[in-house]
Specification:
The complex is a heterodimer of chains A (354) and B (231). Chain A has 354 residues and is of the alpha/beta class. Chain A has 11 helices and 14 strands. In chain A, the strands form 3 sheets. A 6-stranded mixed β-sheet of chain A has the order 6-7-8-3-9-10, sandwiched between helices. Chain A has a 4-stranded antiparallel β-sheet with strand order 2-1-4-5, covered by helices on one side. Chain B is mainly alpha-helical and 231 residues long. Helix content of chain B is 77%, strand content 0%. Chain B has helices at 2-5, 8-11, 19-51, 57-75, 78-84, 86-93, 99-123, 127-135, 140-170, 182-191, 196-224. Classes of the chains: A alpha/beta (354), B mainly alpha (231). The interface between A and B is medium-sized, with 27 and 23 residues.
Amino acid sequence: MNTSFTRPGPGAIITSVITLDGLTKVFPAPGGGDPVVALGGIDLHHAPGRVHGIVGRSGAGKSTLIRCLTGLEKPTSGRVEVDGTDIAALEGAALRAARRNIGMVFQHANLLDSRTAAQNIAHPLEIAGVPRAQRRERVAQLVELVGLSGREHNYPAQLSGGQIQRVGIARGLAAEPKVLLCDEPTSALDGGTTRQILNLLSDLRERLGITVVIITHEMGVVREVCDTVTLLENGTITQTGDLLEVASDPLGPLSAELIPLPPAPTGIEALVVNCDYGNSERFRTTEDLIRLAETYEAAATLVAGTIETIGGRQVGRVQLALRNYSGTPISREGLNAFLAELESAGVVAKEVTA
Amino acid sequence: MIELLDNPVFTTWDSNTSLWSNTLITLYMTVGTVLFSTVIGVPLGLLLFETSGARSGATRWINSVVGFIVNVGRSFPFIILIIALIPVTRFVVGRVTGPNAAMFALAISAIPFLARLIEINLREISAGKIEAVQMMGASRWQIIRQVLLPEALPGIIGSLTTTTIAVIGYTAMAGAVGGKGLGDLAIRNGYQSYDNVVMVATVLVLVAIVIAIQALGSALARAVDHRAAAR
């Protein structure tokens, strides 16, 4: 499976800051049963300066992937390369030094309660042996950068969930890592705070040019900030690519997750058709679909739909109810012809049976 | 009422009868024991914590050996331990009677107790915090200094308080090796000589000491505790 998806911007060189090559992790089963394959051969190349999303349900292997990336877990086979360094091959002091290339942000921030916000942010610098004066200067910048001015001398217990995560992000950035690895960074936050944190992350990417990897189960997070997305299922990659590409591929597993379909309506005297015009050049809006239905002498009404603008392009999944002008459901032949024409134009259309 | 205060327990300074000198002896034995126990018990607790859950052979071995010693130490009734230790005490302290000899036995008994409590304190730190600092590239020693000890400090102070109070209770048996102290005074001059004044006076002083230590320990723990629940 070729899962490389570096799409260079104008003038960019194709390099990747994170390279996973056939990454496999097998855990021996407790009690001597079949070994558990947590990761079954992951190939992934992450381009620098972009926001990469890795999604999957719990148990898909996300946590193992993070632990392999940070060297907390040794892969059974395969390579883990971060900024040109093979993490899996390192031990001891060399591994500890390599870990400083990765800033980590956690779901529950994992701040130390015994340290103030500023002391928590300074912690990676302390470990790296940065002199006190330099540390103070850098912490002041970071506090400003994540919008925590005035709260830096508070203990975590005196901060709100969103503020705690800002401290966590500042701490992740402190040692100027190449990659900011975020493990479910917003899953413990409310909607408004989630948006603030996501805005902060994409803002940081803009200002610092840092590569951000967000591991999450929330599709909203992917829609909002990610440039690329990778779907992990049972320890393997089932889909990966640029967000628009993936969202507009109606046959891929992710488009349905990113742009969910409403449930089929009941009690409607009409044929109901689901249309996914993500990839079509001819049909760009719902209006286009309704006009086509008219040429088949059917009145189409929009009963449900999800329309998103991703990368400036409309991507949608809509549900249309089709009736003859007389009010009765349209004929089988008419429907089939309508569906066939949609299909030929790249729209994935399916009749919904309630 | 005045006759009560004429009791030699109040009027003398001789350590065979005096409440005052025996109070000082108890405090001396307690403070000394707790200092020794802290110096050895806290590192031992760290060792128990650091070696627990290890998969490799050597670490696992260390953990079971230390764990076994701690369990044996904790299961000895103190009065038996004090007697059983006499040859060792002679070797280490130089004599087998007196407060210093008693202190040695007290420390041997308090160290495993404290070590277990410290291990429990460290176990309460969430694994996520330790991993977060590991991912910053911290060495094991940095994690001990910068995460384990500061994060567990409120709990460690609580454990030291509990250990101190337990040691005060154990000093009552120090009389068995001529260690003197309040407990010894209460047993000899109060219980065995049917002197209720001595009995009540020593108990009241012990209660006051325990309350004072607990109050001090709680205040210290609160002062270093920055977690939300403590506010």
